[in-house]
Amino acid sequence: MSSIEKKPVRRYLLLFGALFLLVFFLSLSRGAVPVDLFHPDELSRRILLEVRLPRVLLAALCGASLSLAGLYFQYVMQNPLADSFTTGASASAALGAVLALLFFGETWVLPSALFLALLGLVAVLRIASLRGRLLPVTMLLAGIVVNTFASASISLLKFLAQESVASLVFWLMGGFQNATYLRCAGLAVALLGACFYGLYRAPALDLTAFDDETARASGVPLYRLRRELLFLGALLTAVTVSFSGIIGFVGLIVPHLLRLAGFLRAEILIPLSLLFGASFLVLADLLSRVLLSQGQELPVGVLTSALGGLFFLYLLVKRRRELYELV
Amino acid sequence: MNWFKVRDLRVKQGGFQLRVPELDLSGGEMVAILGPNGSGKSTLLRALAGLIAYQGEIFLAGRTLPQVPEKERFRLVSYLPQSAHLGLPFEVYYVVLTGRYPLLAGRGYSASDFKAVEKLLDLLDLVRLRLRLFGELSGGERQRVLLARALAREAPVLLLDEPLAALDLHHQHRIMRYLRDYVRRKDGLVLAVLHDLALALKYFRRFLLLRRGYLYGDVGVEELSPDLLSRVMGVRIEFVPWENERLVRVKG
């Protein structure tokens, strides 16, 4: 009994924390201009504090937020394939942001993104649920529906408002070029709130993975819990999309790898998803900055989407049963 | 203890209606619900667990169901649905442990929870499977895990919807003996939907007979005649005395 219950949780937290710090400082020191973190000259110091630090911080916070959002969507949709991207939440949030930018002005970007993200999620839930259950395949299809409509609408808006094309493309292929300390602070507040909400209710979160009857008959306030998790996931998605555009699949890949490694309970999945997700996106951002020569940048969303494609290939080939729920 | 008092219960689900004019279920009882498919057996259990809307009144331990807060209600009542589904991967041990959720006082499970789980893993021969993922198990193994989960709560009232359907004979009898002892020890109540008449006659003393959504009979083991059973089940049934028991035979 003790072998399971006393799994050295603290050791894994330290391990993933160390991994994050390593990636974080590596990412600070590398880029178009290498910076010596220990003996920076005046120019390096300015690059570090004004450009690179906010950027790497935003990447870390986005990685953690997308992973947590993905995890929460997985509890709401009762399957491990849900995340901001596959549920269509990212695309509808991006549509909200673009709409606000074109018609209402920049202050409305975040509320509009949140509103449309929620709208898209409710649509997916409505389309995909059948007698208190959501099948992974129907959820993915409903997600594709929302994704397609939102992306088509963004393309249409881009076509109609030709003068600001460059700024609109940013929403479709995310990146961290627009990082500021203020944005980091905003995202950090949302992330902390959402994370403590989940940690405090960890055993109840796990119960939402059961069918409705079993969960309700365990004394979990299921419908309220689902609504709140859905809202928090949408909030995290909307904030990340408003600040850094669509970055897909992080919330799918990170919890999935952690589950494969044997971390199954919310109590440990939440903190590890934050650390691993942050490391994952900081590393992806670093790669997007150094892969091309002469200081050119790859949009980080392109990198994560490529990884997401590979990941789905792996699921299709190796874990078909899970995908179609034939078990 | 008078666990359930039901008065003028009506449950509508689509075109189907369940009606139970009067029903009292007390401590120390093993009560089986018998009836053909679609006669309202599961609906009755769901209504008693407070999981579906109903008209009329259901009292649980003296209070109407809405008066008992959910967490407290499910400390008293453990409900095992006919089939359960788990959408995310969890190991057997943890699935059983989650049955103790209503008993949680603080934020996490504690030593008494682990102890209860160990006991049931042992009873249901799940010790070997404890680290396996629930999704990887066979149907019979899953049912044993879910039964262990329902029993882990140690609730005085057990509402079990076909708890033994996918189990082998050895486990069926082992569990029935455990339940008989459990009910005595806790002054508890077992209300179970069963299809196996032989098993029902061997272990249960009281029978609720449902037919087309109506409580057709509420009889003790002595009053349960082949004639009555035949009318409810829609097949001709006879009892064959054998040593101290009655065997059930379907004629024709």
Automatic annotation (TrEMBL), chain A:
Which cellular components does GO assign to this protein? Answer: plasma membrane
**Record localization:** Cell membrane
Q: How does it sit in the membrane?
A: Multi-pass membrane protein
Pfam name, any one = FecCD
CDD domains per the UniProt record, alphabetical: TM_ABC_iron-siderophores_like
List each coiled-coil range: none
Question: Which keywords fit this entry according to its UniProt record?
Answer: Cell membrane, Membrane, Transmembrane, Transmembrane helix, Transport
Q: Which GO terms describe its biological process?
A: siderophore-iron import into cell
Q: Which family does it belong to?
A: Belongs to the binding-protein-dependent transport system permease family. FecCD subfamily.
UniProt xrefs under PANTHER family: ABC TRANSPORTER PERMEASE PROTEIN MJ0876-RELATED, FERRIC ENTEROBACTIN TRANSPORT SYSTEM PERMEASE PROTEIN
Q: What's the protein called, per UniProt?
A: Iron ABC transporter permease
Q: Which organism is it from?
A: Thermosulfurimonas dismutans
From TrEMBL, chain B:
- Stretches assigned to the ABC transporter domain: 1-237
Gene Ontology molecular-function annotations: ATP binding; ATP hydrolysis activity
Give the record's keywords alphabetically: ATP-binding, Nucleotide-binding, Translocase, Transport
Looking up SUPFAM superfamilies in the UniProt record yields: P-loop containing nucleoside triphosphate hydrolases
Specify whether Translocase is a keyword of the entry: yes
| Pfam families linked to this entry | ABC_tran
**Listed InterPro entries:** AAA+_ATPase, ABC_transporter-like_ATP-bd, ABC_transporter-like_CS, P-loop_NTPase
The record's function comment reads: Part of the ABC transporter complex HmuTUV involved in hemin import. Responsible for energy coupling to the transport system.
Q: What's the protein here called?
A: ABC transporter ATP-binding protein
